Amino acid sequence: MMKDTTTTLDTTWVRSQFPAFAEDVLQDQAFFENAGGSYTCAPVINRLTRYYTQRKVQPYAPYEASTLAGAEMDEARSRLAAMMGVDTDELSFGPSTTQNTYVLANAFRQHLNTGDAIIVTNQDHEANTGPWRRLAEEGIEVREWQIDPETGHLDVATLDNLLDEKVKLVCFPHCSNVVGEINDVALICAKARANGSYTCVDGVSYAPHGFVDVNALGADIYLFSAYKTYGPHQGIMIIRRGLGEALPNQGHYFNADSLYKRFTPAGPDHAQIAASAGMADYMEALSAHHGHAASGAAAARAAHSLMRDHEATLLQPLLDYASAKNSVRLLGPDQAANRAPTVALASQIPGEELAVRLASMGIMAGGGDFYAVRALAAQGVDPAHGVLRVSFTHYTTEAEVSKLIAALDQVL
Ligand SMILES: Cc1ncc(COP(=O)(O)O)c(C=O)c1O
């Protein structure tokens, strides 16, 4: 462990925590599709392996393997919840964020009354908009909070015009997976709450860049996907107690008193939930390695700052390059301070074609619509033509970003 506190990320140490970087088959491949799914950190892989080899039994029975299995699942929920400022039973796992919103929308379908209204955006990934829009079939009024077609920005003043006493729920992203701008979640949630509306925040694109304090943000629902936050393929839902108890139970009737079981009708993936404790291990080790807090919420905050500072430093040159390049249109803000390192570029060449060209140059990136069909269309980009998306995270190095810029310069 380092002796002094530092704000500079030790990327050599960081990369040593991700076995992918040591794999021969991945050498000389710069990974820029992290918004699709990130590499898995060693603590998660180790826990998953241990679970499958030593604890792969029905959890919560009195024999030792089972007790350990159940305890590890509980540990994952309690440590992640503590890091995110909520009670343990306010955090639950489901198969994916898309399935989680589907279940939540069904709960709201039963909870809302004809004539009630909800607000959705056209900035979201389809997961946090499509299921909500279907409530229109039940007589719920669906209002669309629209982005600026030039900038992709969601203006809070526009939200003000949509809020009234009929609005019971506001669904929006912490950060869009193509616009990249970080929305002012605390402000939006405060406005919704003052209006008597609940909030459902899609944190999927933001969470890889830091586990946030959901209590401080004031969201009623905060969703993210662990396979993008260095963990296994699970969706994680934080549902605050007031809302979770008000919505009708979607699980087995006899589990209704258990908040964390109310919105997970499917049987949980025991091994993956247990392995998710490895994400907490990693964030804590990251914080401690840089001389900051060794555990809990303080470690999560320190890891968040370390990651964000590093990412912003690497992101600005890429944004400067893309903004200056005449043959592409950079979607979203050109300043790193208020965006995630998820950069969508629209060009005359289809997004997937650009990704193919980059692949031959050792750049792993993706092209297409990224299920943000509405956001692309609203910005005048044909979703079928698609964008090139290059997205990175804290384990990315300056050398990789330079390699990306050089490669982009050849293909664009
Ligand atoms: C912003 C955003 N929201 C939601 C999702 C859906 O998550 P999941 O794959 O867990 O359903 C994604 C997936 O790419 C995403 O990028």
Question: Can you give keywords for this protein?
Answer:
alpha/beta; 39% helix; single chain; Aspartate Aminotransferase, domain 1; binds pyridoxal-5'-phosphate; 412 residues; Aspartate Aminotransferase, domain 2; 13 strands
Topology:
Layout: H1 11-16, E1 30-31, H2 42-54, H3 64-83, E2 91-94, H4 97-111, E3 117-121, H5 130-133, E4 141-145, H6 156-162, E5 167-173, H7 185-194, E6 198-202, H8 214-217, E7 221-225, E8 235-239, H9 241-246, H10 270-275, H11 277-289, H12 296-324, E9 328-330, E10 342-347, H13 351-359, E11 363-364, E12 366-368, H14 373-378, E13 387-391, H15 398-411
Helix pairs in contact: 2-11, 3-11, 3-12, 11-12, 12-15
The structure holds pyridoxal-5'-phosphate.
Give a brief rundown of this model.
The chain is α/β, with parallel strands linked by helices.
Model description:
This protein has 412 residues and is an alpha/beta fold. The chain has 2 domains: 11-39 and 298-411, Alpha-Beta Complex (Aspartate Aminotransferase, domain 1); 49-279, Type I PLP-dependent aspartate aminotransferase-like (Major domain) (Aspartate Aminotransferase, domain 2), CATH 3.40.640.10. Helices cover 39% and strands 14% of the residues. The chain is built from 15 helices and 13 strands. It has a 7-stranded mixed sheet with strand order 2-8-7-6-5-3-4, with helices on both faces. Helix 2 packs antiparallel against helix 11, helix 11 (277-289) crosses helix 12 (296-324) and helix 12 packs parallel to helix 15. The chain is globular. Pyridoxal-5'-phosphate binds at residues 96-98, 125, 127-128, 173, 177, 202, 204-205, 225, 235.
